[in-house]
Design goal:
- The first copy, chain A, is an all-alpha fold and 231 residues long.
- The first copy, chain A, folds into 2 domains: 12-75, Homeodomain-like (Arc Repressor Mutant, subunit A), CATH 1.10.10; 80-215, Orthogonal Bundle (Tetracycline Repressor, domain 2), CATH 1.10.357.
- Helix content of chain A is 70%, strand content 0%.
- Chain A is built from 10 helices and no strands.
- Chain A has helices at residues 9-44, 47-53, 58-64, 68-79, 84-93, 98-114, 118-128, 133-160, 169-188, 202-215.
- In chain A, helix 5 (84-93) runs parallel beside helix 8 (133-160).
- Chain A is elongated.
- Mean pLDDT of chain A is 85; it is low at 1-14 and 225-231.
- Chains C and D meet through helix 1, helix 7, helix 8, helix 9 and helix 10 of C and helix 7, helix 8, helix 9, helix 10 and helix 11 of D.
- Chain B binds a DNA duplex (21 and 21 nucleotides) through helix 1 and helix 3.
DNA sequence: GATGAATGAGGATTCATTCAT
DNA sequence: CATGAATGAATCCTCATTCAT
């Protein structure tokens, strides 16, 4: 038994915590940085604040990341992890109406990604892409391509089942993407800073988007007079 | 007639040039500011650089605009707010099918605003709103409120004419806004920095969005088998 | 008769006014500058504001005074004019009690100098003397020396008439000067900028100062119990 | 005992020096600031110069004081406000004649405050109050109010003991304040810049002021013929 | 002479980054 | 490894002064 074991327990504990923390450092810093970058953007986030939120000193931050810019890149890379495998499986397993599938997907997307902190990454990338081209490339490859691929397959399923019709499949995917990106951008910008508050209830927004997306704005010959319409 | 009138024309000319320059200054500065704000964002744009690009010195900028923020507001007024009058008139004067109106509006919106540099302002505001609440509030008031108002009236027109049906008018406007904002965000972020290039042809994008928006994804009972569908 | 005489009268008038003004320019500038220097001090007074208050353009100011510093010096020199002749005469002519003379002088000093704008010069000189040694020298020679001389003679008169007694004549004069300078300084500083307001009623202040100056704080053996004393 | 404790003393020493410097910084900065504020006034003192005189860089100054104004307030607290406790105690403890108390106080005031650099602060505030209302308000609260309060209590003590008599207590305090302020103003303006030198010996000035203040200028019936009077 | 547009040095303050401990 | 004191380049904005007209 080493002598250290004979030292007062507190010291032991603290030592252990310190060890644990030491290895967790980069992660804690990335966490803190994610929060702050999402909240304030790259330029307005102060290195010291990141360090403070991670519970370390300013100097320590630069021990792990050589510059604020590298920290930023690490934050984005760290958080762009493809959860696409899981999503693909779920998609493959889905049975039923394509309209329901789309309704389900949008809702699930919001609950699992949009509503959480992960959407902050998307906001971050889009907002700062211009000043960080390699991040943009990274994101494109890791998120956009697989994401658009999944969405395309969803539309194809609908078409194959004779439930959807689209004129231009490559661009139809944007009819699903645009509403999601818009919601994310608003959630992280105007919704949190306009004095009167920018009114945007996500659930209601998604419900409205999906229905319009499925059925369109145009009244159809056989349609019932649409009870809910507010003229 | 005083002798001065008989002096060489040059004097007159130079005077004229000076006058012209003086009057042109604000415009030149606004041009330069627009370029830089769009390129670098609000925070990262340095006042001095705006001045330099307009061919004047630092001090001159502040002769015309009391602060960077006021300069930005002037850019917004010059490039966006000022156009609503014209748009409203056009809307009021429009005759014909509401679907055509929507097609026309989207196209015209792109040609006049979206395609130009002005759309960069929208991207900027959404990206940096959180750090500049004053700017966000200003933009909300000057652009978002009148813009959404116009869109709402377009939908109401369609409903009134029995051509559109919407369940939730307040949120249906986002079905028009989201595609536009998405296009703007992409145009000024991923589209200009992803190496391979983010493939997004605006015209085709808008055409696709509008048709889906009008008719929805779902195949309708009486629909012909949709020749254009690419399975 | 020159043709100009046939021009509309207005022109004539304006021309005349302009002529008149042209010669008055330096004076108007000095007036404006006096006001502003007294109000804001040297550093905080902007040349442009002086020009604006004098009704001319910025450039014109520099036509008459080569720099802000020279303007400042001119302002002080211009306003340090000895009205001492008049005061001396009045002093020589005064008949009566020396205590009354002192009461009279203090009151008259306030009415004629202290209360007016002239006191601003004194405040100005004392406040800025350190940065303008030649102004200080000028003021010393033109104002302080003759002023102290007059005051000394007043005390001497009292002593000669057996009405005053002083131990140290050279310094006794400060017993008259200090209250005046203090009042001036306060009038132009704390009195006009402390939020709650610095309470200082000049008339009451002078009355109090004079009486204490004449009779002292110490109760005298034969004194009546001083009805007005507020314990 | 860990081995580190056995390391050469040098490390310890250097550490100590660094600690000492860190703790000394605010003091060094306050010293430098006091010097410069007194010498040049508030507006004309450049932050960088304060830092330089304290032997640190611009940034370091703002590490200890968030703004130039806060630096100034700290200077005031350090040099003036902090002393009232001590003064009050001394006043409470004073035994003896009120005239002696007044003589003692004036002398002590000069020795401890007036003669030192701290009095320059008072001069500065009065000179620049109008441009820095916050500073004026702060000074009023921290220095003027407690100062006048102490003086009022001194007069009240004299009255209570039947030694002083005043007609208007609220204004009688100015009979003590005015001489002190005058001396301060002169010391920091004309006295240090008039070429020939403005002749003002503080000790003699105070002695003269106090005696006149106590006994007044007027000869009293029972007075001896005032040996010292120089006619 | 008069104008006022233009200049650019200067000043307060911020913050990423370094480095001695 | 960790710290946090120190740095100084960078940035917004001001204003005395110049000079072409």
């Amino acid at each position: 038994m080493p002598f250290s074991k004979l030292l007062p327990v507190r010291s032991d504990d603290v030592q252990a915590k310190r060890e644990r923390r030491k290895e967790a450092r980069p992660g804690e810093l990335l966490e803190a940085a994610l929060d702050l970058f999402v909240e304030k953007g790259f330029a307005a986030t102060r290195s010291e604040e990141v360090a403070a939120r991670a519970g370390v000193s300013k100097g320590t931050l630069f021990l792990y990341f050589p510059s604020k810019e590298e920290l930023f890149k690490a934050v984005v890379r760290e958080n762009i992890s493809g959860r696409f495998k899981e999503w693909n499986d779920e998609f493959e397993a889905f049975e039923g109406d394509s309209a329901d599938m789309l309704r389900y997907c949008m809702k699930v997307w919001w609950d699992r990604l949009g509503a959480g902190r992960a959407s902050g990454i998307t906001k971050l990338v889009i907002s700062e892409a211009r000043n960080f081209p390699d991040i943009a490339a990274f994101y494109q490859e890791e998120v956009i391509v697989p994401g658009q691929d999944l969405i395309r397959r969803m539309l194809q399923r609908g078409i194959a089942r004779g439930e959807f019709q689209v004129k231009d499949l490559d661009y139809a995917i944007y009819s699903l993407i645009a509403p999601m990106i818009f919601l994310i951008m608003m959630k992280h910008s105007l919704c949190v800073c306009v004095p009167g508050g920018y009114p945007l209830d996500p659930e209601r927004y998604i419900a409205s988007q999906v229905e319009t997306l499925l059925h369109g704005l145009c009244k159809r010959p056989g349609d019932v007079p649409a009870a809910g319409t507010k003229p």
